[in-house]
């Protein structure tokens, strides 16, 4: 299969039709490149707040509600594009007010298939900004999506930095990591987490990023990153583990061919077997003996 992952700039819109045209252009380009799966980043949907004007987009709380109110239409648009162009799409994540989960919004990404099916994954662990400034809360549990492309797991940005979340999705062939990071330090934290999860689970992990400035928003005003597709540095994969990477802060798709038979092979007969040796840690991670050396 081919995977396309986005370095996605945030724009402003006066009309819904302008957003629909932008998204359609991006999906058309991914399809032209031969992608079977297109991955958009975390909080890429925040640009939808501009549909209600600069005052709303520039207000933290009002922007959350502005985006959430249009997400049903956003989902229908993505689903139509996935069917029309015959590819899977992980839509950009968005703040969603879900009454079943309480009064505060969750950070939700939706996966769409060419058959018209859709399902979502919520972020599990909030960054300091999300919990202290925005009051976005953890959502529903981790899910594993069994698709015609293989088993897909999603860890949204900060979630990728926690190995137990990655371990919970160790059956995934593909691990998707949509991210939104302000600084180069944040980008590399997520990239290191993404690559570490690929190493531990011996799978392919895909990072998407927001890029560029969005001065109209106090939440996503500065964005640093690039697309990247990673595997374990082992049999059948590049020595660096890097299948493809974009250029820093350059908008566009990063594309790589992925053969899941290589995932199966490295899990069964890699030079190392991190995934199946995970349990060897049990009992060795308990009480630590402290030795004083002076």
How would you describe this structure to a colleague?
- With 294 residues, the chain is an alpha/beta fold.
- It has a single domain, classed as Carbon-nitrogen hydrolase (Nitrilase/N-carbamoyl-D-aminoacid amidohydrolase), CATH 3.60.110.
- It has 9 helices and 14 strands.
- Strands 1, 2, 3, 4, 5, 6, 7, 8, 9, 10, 11, 12, 13 and 14 form a 14-stranded mixed beta sheet that branches.
- A hairpin with a 2-residue loop joins β7 and β8.
- α1 runs parallel beside α4.
**CA distance, first residue to last residue:** 57 Å
Instruction: Report helical residue fraction.
Output: 25-40%
The CATH architecture is 4-Layer Sandwich
Q: Give the number of helices.
A: 9
CATH superfamily, called what? Carbon-nitrogen hydrolase
The outline comes out as globular
Instruction: Report low-confidence residues grouped into runs of 5 or more.
Output: none
CATH topology: Nitrilase/N-carbamoyl-D-aminoacid amidohydrolase
Measured by DSSP, the beta-strand proportion falls in 15-25%
What is the N-to-C order of secondary-structure elements (H for helix, E for strand)? EHEHHHEEEEHEEHEHEEEEEHH
Helix-strand makeup class: alpha/beta
Instruction: Count all strands and give the number.
Output: 14
CATH top level?
Answer: Alpha Beta
Tell me the major beta sheet: 14 strands, mixed
């Amino acid at each position: 299969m081919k995977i396309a992952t986005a370095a996605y700039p945030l724009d402003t819109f006066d009309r819904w039709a302008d957003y629909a045209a932008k998204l359609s252009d991006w999906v058309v380009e991914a399809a032209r490149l031969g992608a079977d799966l297109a991955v958009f980043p975390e909080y890429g949907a925040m640009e939808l707040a501009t549909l209600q004007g600069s005052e709303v987009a520039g207000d933290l709380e009002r922007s959350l509600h502005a985006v959430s109110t249009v997400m049903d239409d956003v989902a229908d648009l993505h689903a139509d594009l996935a069917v029309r162009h015959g590819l899977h799409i992980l839509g950009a994540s968005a703040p969603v007010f879900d009454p079943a989960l309480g009064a505060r919004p969750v950070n939700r990404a939706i996966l769409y298939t060419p058959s018209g099916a859709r399902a979502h994954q919520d972020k599990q662990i909030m960054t300091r900004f999300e919990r202290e400034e925005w009051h976005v809360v953890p959502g529903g549990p981790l899910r594993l999506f069994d698709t015609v492309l293989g088993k897909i797991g999603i860890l949204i940005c900060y979630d990728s930095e926690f190995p137990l979340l990655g371990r919970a999705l160790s059956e995934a062939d593909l691990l998707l990591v949509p991210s939104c990071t302000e600084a180069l330090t944040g980008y590399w934290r997520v990239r290191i987490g993404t690559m570490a999860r690929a190493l531990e689970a011996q799978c392919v992990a895909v990072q998407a990023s927001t890029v560029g400035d969005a001065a109209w928003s106090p939440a996503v005003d500065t964005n640093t990153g690039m697309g990247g597709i990673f595997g374990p540095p082992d049999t059948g994969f590049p020595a660096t583990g890097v299948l493809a990477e974009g250029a820093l802060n350059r908008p566009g798709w990063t594309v790589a061919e992925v053969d899941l038979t290589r995932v199966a092979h490295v899990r069964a007969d890699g030079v190392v077997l991190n995934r199946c040796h995970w349990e060897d840690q049990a009992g060795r991670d308990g009480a630590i003996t402290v030795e004083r050396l002076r």
